Amino acid sequence: MHNFALVPFSCFRRVDVPSPSTFVYIRHRINKIDLFLSKQIAVFGKIYHKNLESLIGYCEEPDNLALVYEYMAGSDLKALLSGSDSLSWKTRLQIAIDSAQGLDYLHHGCRPAIIHRDVKTPNILLNQHLLAKIANFSSPRSSQMNIFQFYQHGSLGHLVTLILSKSYTNPIDIS
């Protein structure tokens, strides 16, 4: 078992199992969890798209909750773009298309639509074949959120620009 990162109330780990699959899990301390995690399990346990990181399962114990996700061996897009190896434009375009297809599924393939709210290069994970998958659904919302809910999590400067230009539409999935 390998620790990957430590974030508040969570720990990302890689777990090797005696099968061709490798899984990652996120462990949460129960006393720091709100209803979001149970909603996340209910929603993401039912959806599947090739460009979304899959929630494989979960394990609930008295003091912990572990969410089990697939392992993406190719790291994240931020690490790949800032690394010493350069990506061809064809590969970059395919990663952008993969990411757009994942967002399209969240926005148009799910009912109600799911707004990720934190799409950025560290949250685009890549497998060993550089297939991009959107991950880290730490603050998704249904498309029924209003503009004031967006302000609580989004960038105020960006929100003001959208309102003044009258180009605000729902859903918004940028930060």
Automatic annotation (TrEMBL):
Tree of life domain: Eukaryota
Stored InterPro entries: Kinase-like_dom_sf, Prot_kinase_dom, Ser-Thr/Tyr_kinase_cat_dom, Ser/Thr_kinase_AS, Tyr_kinase_cat_dom
Gene Ontology molecular function terms on file: ATP binding; protein tyrosine kinase activity
Residue intervals passing through the bilayer: none
Residues covered by the Protein kinase domain: 1-175
Pfam families: PK_Tyr_Ser-Thr
PANTHER family in the record: OS07G0107800 PROTEIN-RELATED, SENESCENCE-INDUCED RECEPTOR-LIKE SERINE_THREONINE-PROTEIN KINASE
Protein name: Protein kinase domain-containing protein
Species name: Carnegiea gigantea
Origin organism lineage: Eukaryota, Viridiplantae, Streptophyta, Embryophyta, Tracheophyta
